[in-house]
Design goal:
about 100 residues, about 0% strand, mainly alpha, extended, 4 helices, about 80% helix
């Protein structure tokens, strides 16, 4: 048996240790049958918005003097990473669209 297959089997056995509830959560997060791309995309957008909003709220609380600086830095870094990811995905989508449009018919 190949090394990647062993790793996949080990991961699957660890995932099954938690019982049916964790298996259901894992399968829905990994794209189980019945889940569609639009649900995944809308969830990703909502998570991005929530992350950026949390960073803004933490910054506002820090300015008011009501927040721990470590929490503020973590929230702002998370928001920055989310924004960088969104921009990178947008750039890839635009590049793919341009590539498709330049293909000869």
């Amino acid at each position: 048996m190949a090394l990647p297959a062993l790793a996949a089997a080990a991961y699957q056995s660890v995932a099954n240790i938690g019982g049916a509830s964790s298996a259901a959560a894992t399968s829905s997060a990994t794209g189980a049958p019945g889940a569609n791309f639009s649900d995944f995309l809308s969830g990703a957008v909502k998570d991005s918005i929530n992350s950026i909003s949390a960073g803004e709220k933490a910054s506002t609380q820090a300015v008011a003097g009501n927040a721990n600086i470590v929490d503020v830095v973590n929230s702002v870094n998370s928001a920055e990473l989310t924004l960088d990811t969104v921009v990178a995905v947008r750039d890839k989508v635009v590049t793919a669209y341009q590539s498709i449009m330049s293909m000869p018919i």
